[in-house]
Amino acid sequence: LSELESSRREFVANVSHELRSPITSIRGFVEGMEDGTIPPQEHGKYLHIVGDETKRLSKLINDLLSLSRLEREDAQLQLTDFDMNEMLRRAVIRRMNDLDQKHMEVETDFRLDPCMVHADSDRMEQVVVNLLDNAIKFSAEGETLGIGVAAKGGKAYISVRNVGETIPPEELPLVFDRFHKTDHSRSEDRDGVGLGLYIVKTILNSHKENITCESQDGKTTFTFTLTRA
Q1: What pLDDT, in 10s, does the model give residues 26-74?
Q2: Under a CB-based contact definition with an 8 Å cutoff, are residues 156 and 226 in contact?
Q3: How far apart are alpha carbons 186 and 194 in whole angstroms?
Q4: Angle formed at CA 191 by CA 20 and CA 108, multiple of 5 degrees
Q5: Is 196 helix (H, G, I), strand (E, B) or coil?
Q6: Where are the alpha helices (DSSP H) in 76-142?
Q7: Count of CB atoms situated within 10 Å of the CB of 195
Q8: What is the pairing mode between strands 144-152 and 105-110?
Q9: Residue in 201, 60, 155, 100 with CA at minimum distance from that of residue 92
Q10: How far apart are the first and last CA of the chain?
Protein backbone atom coordinates (compact mmCIF):
# COMPACT_ATOMS: atom_id res chain seq x y z
CA LEU A 1 0.00 0.00 0.00
CA SER A 2 2.88 2.33 0.79
CA GLU A 3 4.48 1.69 -2.61
CA LEU A 4 1.11 2.18 -4.34
CA GLU A 5 0.56 5.50 -2.58
CA SER A 6 4.10 6.61 -3.44
CA SER A 7 3.53 5.70 -7.08
CA ARG A 8 0.22 7.58 -7.09
CA ARG A 9 1.81 10.70 -5.63
CA GLU A 10 4.64 10.56 -8.18
CA PHE A 11 2.14 10.18 -11.00
CA VAL A 12 0.06 13.15 -9.81
CA ALA A 13 3.22 15.24 -9.43
CA ASN A 14 4.34 14.37 -12.96
CA VAL A 15 0.92 15.11 -14.44
CA SER A 16 0.77 18.43 -12.58
CA HIS A 17 4.20 19.40 -13.91
CA GLU A 18 3.36 18.45 -17.49
CA LEU A 19 0.05 20.35 -17.34
CA ARG A 20 1.56 23.41 -15.69
CA SER A 21 4.30 23.87 -18.29
CA PRO A 22 2.13 24.49 -21.40
CA ILE A 23 -0.52 26.38 -19.41
CA THR A 24 2.13 28.74 -17.99
CA SER A 25 3.60 29.25 -21.46
CA ILE A 26 0.20 29.98 -23.04
CA ARG A 27 -0.78 32.40 -20.27
CA GLY A 28 2.55 34.24 -20.48
CA PHE A 29 2.39 34.77 -24.24
CA VAL A 30 -1.29 35.80 -24.21
CA GLU A 31 -0.72 38.29 -21.36
CA GLY A 32 2.33 39.63 -23.21
CA MET A 33 0.23 40.31 -26.30
CA GLU A 34 -2.56 41.86 -24.25
CA ASP A 35 -0.37 44.28 -22.27
CA GLY A 36 1.86 45.24 -25.20
CA THR A 37 5.03 43.53 -23.93
CA ILE A 38 4.95 41.56 -27.17
CA PRO A 39 4.56 44.05 -30.06
CA PRO A 40 1.83 43.47 -32.67
CA GLN A 41 4.34 42.57 -35.38
CA GLU A 42 5.47 39.64 -33.23
CA HIS A 43 1.96 38.29 -32.52
CA GLY A 44 1.99 35.81 -35.38
CA LYS A 45 5.21 34.22 -34.14
CA TYR A 46 3.95 33.80 -30.59
CA LEU A 47 0.47 32.67 -31.62
CA HIS A 48 2.19 29.83 -33.48
CA ILE A 49 3.94 28.84 -30.23
CA VAL A 50 0.64 29.06 -28.34
CA GLY A 51 -0.90 26.76 -30.96
CA ASP A 52 1.90 24.22 -30.47
CA GLU A 53 1.41 24.34 -26.71
CA THR A 54 -2.33 23.74 -27.00
CA LYS A 55 -1.62 20.71 -29.21
CA ARG A 56 0.83 19.44 -26.60
CA LEU A 57 -1.76 19.94 -23.87
CA SER A 58 -4.43 18.19 -25.92
CA LYS A 59 -2.15 15.19 -26.52
CA LEU A 60 -1.38 14.89 -22.82
CA ILE A 61 -5.08 14.94 -21.94
CA ASN A 62 -5.85 12.33 -24.61
CA ASP A 63 -3.02 10.12 -23.32
CA LEU A 64 -4.30 10.42 -19.75
CA LEU A 65 -7.81 9.48 -20.88
CA SER A 66 -6.37 6.48 -22.74
CA LEU A 67 -4.52 5.39 -19.61
CA SER A 68 -7.67 5.75 -17.53
CA ARG A 69 -9.57 3.49 -19.92
CA LEU A 70 -6.74 0.96 -20.13
CA GLU A 71 -6.27 0.68 -16.38
CA ARG A 72 -9.94 0.20 -15.52
CA GLU A 73 -10.52 -3.18 -13.91
CA ASP A 74 -13.57 -3.80 -16.11
CA ALA A 75 -11.79 -2.85 -19.35
CA GLN A 76 -12.58 -5.52 -21.93
CA LEU A 77 -10.52 -6.51 -24.96
CA GLN A 78 -12.46 -6.80 -28.22
CA LEU A 79 -10.48 -9.64 -29.78
CA THR A 80 -10.78 -10.21 -33.53
CA ASP A 81 -8.70 -11.59 -36.39
CA PHE A 82 -7.15 -8.98 -38.69
CA ASP A 83 -4.22 -8.40 -41.05
CA MET A 84 -1.41 -6.68 -39.15
CA ASN A 85 0.42 -5.76 -42.35
CA GLU A 86 -2.59 -3.86 -43.68
CA MET A 87 -2.87 -1.96 -40.39
CA LEU A 88 0.80 -0.99 -40.66
CA ARG A 89 0.35 0.20 -44.25
CA ARG A 90 -2.61 2.40 -43.28
CA ALA A 91 -0.73 3.84 -40.31
CA VAL A 92 2.27 4.76 -42.49
CA ILE A 93 0.02 6.44 -45.07
CA ARG A 94 -1.50 8.59 -42.32
CA ARG A 95 2.00 9.64 -41.26
CA MET A 96 3.25 10.60 -44.73
CA ASN A 97 3.13 14.33 -43.97
CA ASP A 98 5.36 13.89 -40.91
CA LEU A 99 7.71 11.65 -42.89
CA ASP A 100 7.91 14.15 -45.74
CA GLN A 101 8.71 17.01 -43.37
CA LYS A 102 11.82 15.10 -42.22
CA HIS A 103 12.60 13.84 -45.76
CA MET A 104 12.34 10.26 -44.55
CA GLU A 105 11.80 7.06 -46.51
CA VAL A 106 10.05 3.90 -45.29
CA GLU A 107 11.49 0.43 -45.77
CA THR A 108 9.19 -2.55 -45.18
CA ASP A 109 9.97 -6.24 -44.72
CA PHE A 110 6.73 -8.21 -44.56
CA ARG A 111 7.95 -11.80 -44.68
CA LEU A 112 4.43 -13.02 -44.08
CA ASP A 113 1.77 -11.22 -46.13
CA PRO A 114 -0.98 -11.18 -45.07
CA CYS A 115 -0.11 -11.58 -41.41
CA MET A 116 -3.32 -12.50 -39.59
CA VAL A 117 -3.24 -11.93 -35.84
CA HIS A 118 -5.71 -12.30 -32.97
CA ALA A 119 -5.94 -9.13 -30.87
CA ASP A 120 -7.95 -5.99 -30.15
CA SER A 121 -7.53 -4.09 -33.43
CA ASP A 122 -8.35 -0.64 -32.01
CA ARG A 123 -5.74 -0.96 -29.27
CA MET A 124 -3.18 -2.45 -31.63
CA GLU A 125 -3.69 0.53 -33.90
CA GLN A 126 -2.82 2.74 -30.92
CA VAL A 127 0.33 0.68 -30.35
CA VAL A 128 1.37 1.05 -34.00
CA VAL A 129 0.64 4.80 -34.09
CA ASN A 130 2.56 5.47 -30.88
CA LEU A 131 5.58 3.47 -32.07
CA LEU A 132 5.60 5.18 -35.48
CA ASP A 133 5.25 8.63 -33.92
CA ASN A 134 8.11 7.82 -31.54
CA ALA A 135 10.31 6.54 -34.38
CA ILE A 136 9.67 9.58 -36.58
CA LYS A 137 10.20 12.00 -33.71
CA PHE A 138 13.61 10.62 -32.80
CA SER A 139 14.86 9.92 -36.33
CA ALA A 140 17.61 12.00 -37.84
CA GLU A 141 16.54 14.03 -40.87
CA GLY A 142 16.68 12.12 -44.15
CA GLU A 143 17.02 8.69 -42.55
CA THR A 144 14.95 5.58 -43.29
CA LEU A 145 12.26 4.22 -41.00
CA GLY A 146 12.09 0.43 -41.04
CA ILE A 147 9.04 -1.76 -40.42
CA GLY A 148 9.32 -5.53 -40.28
CA VAL A 149 6.90 -8.41 -39.72
CA ALA A 150 8.12 -11.96 -39.24
CA ALA A 151 6.64 -15.17 -37.86
CA LYS A 152 8.02 -17.80 -35.53
CA GLY A 153 5.82 -20.57 -34.26
CA GLY A 154 2.47 -19.17 -33.23
CA LYS A 155 3.73 -15.61 -32.81
CA ALA A 156 4.11 -12.65 -35.15
CA TYR A 157 7.04 -10.33 -34.45
CA ILE A 158 6.43 -6.70 -35.46
CA SER A 159 9.38 -4.29 -35.41
CA VAL A 160 9.73 -0.53 -35.91
CA ARG A 161 13.26 0.82 -36.45
CA ASN A 162 14.61 4.34 -36.64
CA VAL A 163 18.08 5.89 -37.02
CA GLY A 164 19.02 8.68 -34.63
CA GLU A 165 20.71 8.91 -31.26
CA THR A 166 21.60 5.69 -29.46
CA ILE A 167 19.71 5.10 -26.22
CA PRO A 168 22.31 4.37 -23.48
CA PRO A 169 22.20 0.73 -22.23
CA GLU A 170 21.35 1.81 -18.70
CA GLU A 171 18.28 3.66 -20.02
CA LEU A 172 16.81 0.80 -22.06
CA PRO A 173 14.94 -0.86 -19.14
CA LEU A 174 13.31 2.50 -18.35
CA VAL A 175 11.97 3.58 -21.75
CA PHE A 176 8.51 2.17 -21.03
CA ASP A 177 8.14 3.92 -17.66
CA ARG A 178 5.56 6.67 -17.23
CA PHE A 179 6.95 10.14 -17.99
CA HIS A 180 10.46 8.75 -18.61
CA LYS A 181 12.63 10.57 -21.15
CA THR A 182 15.93 8.98 -21.91
CA ASP A 183 18.41 11.81 -22.17
CA HIS A 184 18.79 15.56 -22.07
CA SER A 185 17.98 16.10 -25.72
CA ARG A 186 14.84 14.00 -25.44
CA SER A 187 13.76 15.74 -22.25
CA GLU A 188 13.69 18.97 -24.23
CA ASP A 189 11.31 17.52 -26.76
CA ARG A 190 8.14 19.55 -26.35
CA ASP A 191 5.83 17.25 -28.30
CA GLY A 192 6.12 14.25 -25.99
CA VAL A 193 5.46 13.86 -22.30
CA GLY A 194 6.71 10.34 -21.77
CA LEU A 195 3.37 8.48 -21.90
CA GLY A 196 3.31 7.03 -25.43
CA LEU A 197 5.58 4.05 -24.79
CA TYR A 198 4.00 3.42 -21.39
CA ILE A 199 0.62 3.15 -23.13
CA VAL A 200 2.15 0.75 -25.67
CA LYS A 201 3.49 -1.45 -22.87
CA THR A 202 0.18 -1.35 -20.99
CA ILE A 203 -1.81 -2.43 -24.05
CA LEU A 204 0.57 -5.28 -24.86
CA ASN A 205 0.57 -6.41 -21.22
CA SER A 206 -3.22 -6.61 -21.34
CA HIS A 207 -2.82 -8.97 -24.33
CA LYS A 208 -0.15 -10.96 -22.44
CA GLU A 209 2.35 -10.03 -25.17
CA ASN A 210 5.92 -8.71 -24.98
CA ILE A 211 7.82 -5.71 -26.32
CA THR A 212 11.58 -5.13 -26.33
CA CYS A 213 13.84 -2.23 -27.23
CA GLU A 214 17.36 -2.48 -28.68
CA SER A 215 19.58 0.50 -29.48
CA GLN A 216 23.08 0.33 -30.92
CA ASP A 217 25.15 2.46 -33.29
CA GLY A 218 22.28 4.93 -33.73
CA LYS A 219 19.72 2.29 -34.69
CA THR A 220 16.83 1.81 -32.26
CA THR A 221 14.36 -1.04 -32.76
CA PHE A 222 11.15 -1.76 -30.88
CA THR A 223 9.82 -5.30 -31.40
CA PHE A 224 6.54 -6.64 -30.05
CA THR A 225 4.73 -9.96 -30.35
CA LEU A 226 1.18 -10.89 -31.22
CA THR A 227 -0.57 -14.25 -31.39
CA ARG A 228 -1.15 -15.41 -34.96
CA ALA A 229 -4.72 -16.15 -35.97
Answers
A1: 989 999 999 999 999 999 988 988 988 888 788 778 777 777 777 665 5
A2: yes
A3: 10
A4: 155
A5: helix
A6: 84-94, 96-101, 121-137
A7: 23
A8: parallel
A9: 100
A10: 40
